[in-house]
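# nightly structure sweep
# worker-07 picked up a monomer target from the shared queue
# config: single-sequence mode, recycle default, output format = structure tokens
# input follows
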Amino acid sequence: MNGSYNQHRDETPDDDLGLDLVDEVAQTSRAAKPRKAKRLVIGVVVAILVVVVALVGYSLLNKGPNPNSVADAKDAVTVSENLANGGAVSVSTSEKKDALAVQLQGLPELDESETYVVWAITEDGAVNAILSSQQSESSGSYSPLKSLIAVNVTRETGNIPSAPSGDSLEVSVNLPLDPAQQKSQEESPAPAEQGANE
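# output follows
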């Protein structure tokens, strides 16, 4: 050689240093790939679950169209009826929206075990609960409108049954609503106003 002293001459050469480093890097990168794949799969599964839960929640919260949009529709027909034990129900229908909206107003306070239930009755006899409430004012909607023949409001005790109880009927509104009935109600004062004028 050139006669210079090699500083590393006394040390034992580590011939495997380079190969150990290559093995370590190879093992680390192989181990990282399955971890990344697992994380990706878990992330995709979580994202799918979040979307499914959001869709289910949305569908449960939006059983029908917005009651205000049905009542405010240009073709809406609205009829109000008094309930047997006080308060009133307004029923609005819209052919264009193919929906019905119901608003309960001024209902008397109930016992804890009682609930007002609004039922949609179809041509084939099926009964669907549109709304249940213990509050003095509530609203709900139902679609499709085409198969409905009546809306009943009942005052139920205990658990809400699968169909209205016979003796709990507060009011029944036949469908389709008569636009002439709406006009006569708009022209004549409400029952509370009539009592005040007498």
